[in-house]
Amino acid sequence: MTWSGAGYTVRVAGHLDDHHAGWLGDWRLHRDSDGTTTLTAVPADQAQLHGLLAGLRDIGATLITVGPATRFGSQSSVHT
Predict the structure, then answer these.
(1) What pLDDT is attached to residue 76?
(2) How far apart are CA 60 and CA 12, in angstroms?
(3) Domain residue spans in the chain?
(4) What is the three-class DSSP state of 13?
(5) Contact partners, residue 38, CB within 8 Å, separation at least 6
(6) Residue 75's Cα: distance from chain center in Å?
(7) What is the reported pLDDT for 9?
(8) Residue 26, pLDDT score
(9) String of b and e for 15-52 (b: at least 16 CB within 10 Å)?
């Protein structure tokens, strides 16, 4: 499978604190009014996407959705 370089949106339960921003790299963090956090980016490769998911796992974040962004910053997510 070839990496398409597509944008991705990841939503997690709760609001991530600012101290997590250091390891987010190119991922944009948005705290949503519904109490979730949305992360968006165009990862360089699948390893960067998996790195984010591993980091979220390590801090105990609960994934709500992970999926391709139809436009960078907007979401069209697949429920997990």
Answers:
(1) 41
(2) 10
(3) 8-71
(4) strand
(5) 9, 10, 11, 29, 30, 32, 75
(6) 10
(7) 93
(8) 83
(9) ebeeebeeeeeebebeeeeeebbbbbbebeeeebbeeb
Give the pTM: 0.77
Query: 37-53: per-residue pLDDT in tens?
Result: 999 988 888 888 899 99
User: How many angstroms separate the Cα of 58 from the Cα of each of 24, 41, 53, 63?
Assistant: 13, 20, 9, 12
**Segments in 9-67 forming alpha helices (H):** 21-24, 46-58
- Written as six digits, the tokens of 61 are 């974040």
In degrees rounded to 5, what are phi and psi of residue 79?
A: -70, 140
- The segments of the chain whose pLDDT lies below 50 read 1-3, 72-80
The architecture that CATH gives domain 8-71 is: 2-Layer Sandwich (3.30)
In 1-80, DSSP assigns E strands to: 8-13, 28-31, 36-41, 63-68, 78-79
